[in-house]
Write a structure and sequence with these properties.
Length: 269
Amino acid sequence: MKKTNMKIKQLNDLLTGFGSIVVAFSGGVDSSFLAAAALRAVGDKAIAVTDFSETLAESKKNEAVLIAKEIGIKHILLNISELNSPKFVENTASRCYHCKKERFSVLADWAKKNGYSWVLEGSNADDLSDYRPGMKAVDELETTWSPLLEVGLTKNEIREISRLWNLPTWDKLSAACLSSRVAYGISVTAERLKQIESGEELVKKFCPGQVRVRHHGNIARIEVAPENIRIITTPKIAEILEQGLKEIGFTYVTVDLAGYRMGSMNAVI
């Protein structure tokens, strides 16, 4: 804990030095912690901005509004659309790079126009071990920074400090944008993103914990925690899910027997 406390002090010093701050805010574990830390460091010179588009489920946007209010930080919603970027829509293995470039360019422009010096995002030390092409886009923007990564805070440390700070997100499940569910090589469209959102809402009616509906064209591949596979494969629930997902637009419905794992779409890279 002593080592973690040193990191928190380093973070506070870093944030104080930034002066005025825009926090790229999803309402997830990392961005909520960063928003709370920014508020502690610079007070009303910090603002949380949720840039939402078709890639963000409506429920997640609403959650972000409520969580920002509970943290006590100023908050706005900023509408963008990555679907305006042909490179993003193309959905190659660098999709996340084009997404981040689009999002953070918009945020940087907004920050400049509204008198904020820096845009901060919530990548942490654990993200270095995963395939994260979006981090390259952050590095390319002069006024965008990843302070949690700089001071070396891990996900577990962020959760623990969030718990001590009574943040509502300390034990929140990890999340990712809807486009991360679309198989590489299949174009990202508003229709497909809506299929994913509706499909996951359906599965969550019957299954707790992590839920993903991976979009493989006409195939929906369901991922849930391994211990919950038995729930969604019981004949009655399986029939409801199959019918519901076919009504959404899928032709075939499968359950991944390996269960949920973060970044499973990257297995083909």
